[in-house]
Design goal:
The complex is a heterodimer of chains A (117) and B (273). Helix content of chain A is 46%, strand content 19%. Chain A has 117 residues and is of the alpha/beta class. In chain A, helix 1 runs parallel beside helix 2. The longest helix of chain A has 18 residues, at 23-40. With 273 residues, chain B is of the alpha/beta class. Helix content of chain B is 67%, strand content 10%. Chain B has a 5-stranded mixed β-sheet, sandwiched between helices. In chain B, helix 1 packs across helix 6. Chain B is rod-shaped, with a radius of gyration of 32 Å. In chain B, 30% of the residues are buried. Classes of the chains: A alpha/beta (117), B alpha/beta (273). The A-B interface holds A 78-80, 82-84, 86-88, 90-92, 96-97, 101-105, 108-109 and B 176, 179-180, 183-184, 186-187, 190-192, 214, 217-224.
Chain lengths: 117, 273
């Protein structure tokens, strides 16, 4: 199983997903992220999904879950770089990812987090 | 009765009377087209057809039938483009019967031959109908495709603000296209505000509203905020009486208001010089 690395940059955790997401890797990511948030006390999470071409309802739901978990650690989650096709798929699946903020790219995502702090 | 021999005899008869039949046939067709094509052109087309019909009847050539069908379909298509009605095209083919009949009327021994030729011509006439309608369908399909393409422009209003002026009925196919173009443009321009202008949408029912909501939530997933503008008084009344909720999506009366909102959210202000 492939693992997604979590990078800490200042008060922000940066996750860039470069693989085709499998269910186990997402669950693993959720666990790793929870651990990392608890250890570092980071106040923001940026999840970059520029390279993700396929999402299903499970992964969509897990993204929302990750957002909820982060909020328990007082950290805001910003999902950046979603592809149009992925956005259309999620909409058709009826997932609006409430509780997770979105931005066009990592730069704008950081702006959102900085604006908050 | 030997069908093969009958056809061969007819073929021989047509070959012998080539000039007379084609001449008469051309006269009849030219009278029907009323000057939309020149006599020489009609004559040339009919000569081709005639030669192919003779080849099919004589039975010597197995490719002739396919060639005849192709030539006839091509003729029918070009007639369709030139604005002939299918009846005119078919009558053009049927008048060969008349031309031949005038010649064989005296020769009583050719009745079975004429009968089989007549069946063949009927068949050819029907084929022109089919080719005509498929040509028309092709034209209609092309036009609706280009209309779909034309009807969904995405324009940039400001740095970071794009707009989609929607004109005409919104159905699922168009919504899909609009959504794809809007999202692609958001990514390509890095805009974080989109205005969907529905001034040109004649009616907003629950289905159209559903399509709009989908587009907005897809844009939100990309991190862009959407405003719906151009809501006319009647449309507003319909929306309310249908009980459609746009939720937290900003709606504005005009595109100008929507642009002003987008600028304000971007922290910009328009001041007089």
């Amino acid at each position: 199983m492939e693992r997604v690395p979590i990078l800490k940059i200042g008060p922000t955790l940066f996750v860039s997903i470069q693989i085709d997401l499998q269910d186990e890797s997402v669950i693993r990511l959720q666990e790793d992220l929870a651990d990392e948030l608890a250890v570092t006390g980071a106040h923001g999470v940026i999840i970059d999904i520029t390279a993700v071409e396929i999402v299903d309802s499970f992964i969509g739901r897990m993204l929302t879950t990750i957002g909820s978990i982060s909020r328990l650690f007082d950290a805001e989650t910003v999902l950046v770089g979603m592809r149009p096709a992925v956005a259309i798929t999620l909409t058709e699946l009826g997932l609006s990812l409430s509780g997770v903020r979105t931005a066009l790219n990592a730069e704008k995502g950081l702006e959102i987090l900085n604006g908050k702090s | 009765m030997d069908v093969v021999r009958t056809n061969e005899r007819m073929a021989a008869y047509l070959r012998d009377n080539h000039d007379k039949v084609v001449g008469r046939w051309t006269d009849l067709v030219v009278a029907g087209v009323r000057g939309r094509t020149s006599r020489e052109e009609v004559r040339r087309e009919l000569e081709d057809l005639y030669a192919l019909i003779v080849r099919v009847l004589s039975g010597a050539d197995e490719h002739a039938a396919g060639e005849l069908t192709a030539t006839l379909e091509e003729l029918s298509r070009s007639r369709a483009r030139d604005g002939f009605s299918p009846i005119e095209t078919a009558i053009g083919v049927f008048s060969l019967k008349e031309a031949v009949y005038e010649l064989v009327a005296d020769a009583a021994d050719l009745v079975p031959e004429f009968y089989s030729l007549s069946r063949m011509i009927d068949d050819l006439g029907l084929r022109t109908f089919e080719a005509y309608s498929s040509a028309r369908e092709q034209i209609i399909a092309d036009q609706s495709a280009s209309m779909l393409e034309l009807s969904t422009p995405v324009v940039q209003l400001w740095d970071g603000v794009i707009a989609v002026p929607l004109v005409g009925m919104l159905d699922s196919a168009r919504t899909q296209l609009v959504m794809e173009k809007l999202l692609d443009t958001l990514v390509a321009t890095g805009a974080d505000h989109a205005v969907i202008d529905i001034t040109g949408v004649p009616t907003v029912d629950t289905e159209v509203a559903q399509h709009l909501l989908k587009t907005v939530s897809a844009a939100r997933l990309l991190g862009a905020e959407c405003t719906i503008s151009g809501i006319r008084p009647q449309v507003a009344q319909t929306i309310v009486s249908l009980g459609i909720e746009f939720g937290d999506i900003a709606t504005k009366a005009s595109l100008a208001d929507a642009l002003a909102l987008a600028l304000r959210q971007a922290g910009l202000k328009v001041v007089p010089l």
